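Appendix B. One record, verbatim.
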Amino acid sequence: MPEELITVATFSTAIEADLARAKLESEGIECFLADEHTVTVNWLYSQAVGGIKLQVREVNAQRAADILRESRITEDIENQADEYEGYYCPRCNSTDVHYEKFSRRLAFASWLVLSFPLPFLKRKWKCENCGYQWKDSE
């Protein structure tokens, strides 16, 4: 069974993502950049696809987050942790959750059809661990 990749940071530009990737690789952590080429080709897509995602294997996730936090390459990790502190998945109790304000799939579909993305509201929490989605009322 293949190991799952965990997103440890997101970036709006390829330069920031490459700096963080280089730092982790210099520490011996294998990492990958998701959506790098999509955002590089047209930076307007960054918001629609959720930015460039720096992903590592699950066993290295905590160490990678610590290295990025110590190196101060990105302050987004600390901001994301503070922003969602105290929230957890009602299904699996994971704290790896985030709030999705807009539907990325519908925005991407509207971009394909109309040549520009439309912001379809979603307003749901999503667990990165199990994929469960819920509204604030749960």
